[in-house]
Amino acid sequence: MAKNFKHIPVLAKEVPDILVRDPSGIYVDGTFGRGGHSRLILEKLSPKGKLYAFDRDEAAVKAAEEISDPRFRIIYAPFAEMKEKLIELGITSVNGILLDIGVSSPQIDDAERGFSFRFDGPLDMRMDTSTGMTAAEWINRAAAEEITSVLKLYGEEKFSSRIAAAICERRTKEPFTTTKALADLIASVVPRNKKDRDQHPATRSFQGIRIFINDELGQLRQALNAAGSLLQPEGILEVISFHSLEDRIVKHFFDMCANPDKGIDPRLPLRAEQLPQPLFSKGKKVVPTKEELEINPRARSSILRFASRTGTPWKGLELT
Ligand SMILES: C[S@@+](CC[C@H](N)C(=O)[O-])C[C@H]1O[C@@H](n2cnc3c(N)ncnc32)[C@H](O)[C@@H]1O
């Protein structure tokens, strides 16, 4: 039976207003979730418009079956593959793309998915449970150095090596199978955050493991490039991110695309047409209003960045 979890879309007014410039155009929602944004986008489209939505989570894809609208189609695939999947359907260019990245409330709130240290469940953390390694499989096998670097890089956890050492010691006695066992172990070796005493000591580690298990940053980098090559001139790319690691990649991407001549010595004898031309023109970042945060406190750290594609032919960008 489908579990009924609530998900309120963030920036519900701003996202469709910015995205849909041509109501008869073709749009992509790379992160269907429970379809909060997809439904709002569909409301803006004319009968000729189309919306292709993606999700790598089977439960999200199942939830999408509730939308019976000839203008809508759900695709069960990671958004990094959006270009190939759309080409298979004969779509080579689109008018707008939305990525509302990260995990959804239904994923976090379902203990069985193993994303949360607040509820006990199997230590899984995969968005797509049909493929890849679970968090338990990884944590029971990875070398201490690898665990340290995942917690440090993706969780920005300053006690990463202490936690990794404790994990390696404990798993020799009993392998990890549950979220609670891991959360309790981390809480036993990490002091509480002095600035935010309500934050669970495992918050950062769980974030780091989840990002690693789902290759979230790699997916984002690939999707940004795919979006650049799919969008037609004046097409909009919107990305909503929830933490600084993702936002840094998005900001850097849009900066590189908007100012590709940055770093070129202005004294060089180059004509204007010899300089690299902008690939996107940036819009101003958008954050939730106070009123939105009162209704939906989970929107707290979300940032929407968007930009409009220029007519310059797309060249793949190397993103770090
Ligand atoms: C924050 S939620 C999106 C919520 C959605 N905008 C709504 O209003 O219901 C993120 C969703 O994106 C999906 N997701 C995250 N990374 C993905 C990826 N690389 N490819 C496809 N789906 C992804 C997750 O499974 C989750 O369902």
Strands side by side in the biggest sheet:
3-2-1-4-5-7-6
CATH superfamily descriptor of the largest domain:
Vaccinia Virus protein VP39
- Residue share in β-strands: 5-15%
Instruction: Report helical residue fraction.
Output: 25-40%
How many domains, in number, for the residues?
2
Instruction: Tell me the Rg in angstroms.
Output: 21 Å
Q: State the CATH class of the largest domain.
A: Alpha Beta
Average pLDDT metric: 94
CATH fold-level assignment of the largest domain? Rossmann fold
Indicate the low-confidence ranges by residue numbers: none
CATH architecture of the largest domain: 3-Layer(aba) Sandwich
Note the overall shape.
globular
Subcellular location: Cytoplasm
Family: Belongs to the methyltransferase superfamily. RsmH family.
GO molecular function, one term: rRNA (cytosine-N4-)-methyltransferase activity
Protein name: Ribosomal RNA small subunit methyltransferase H
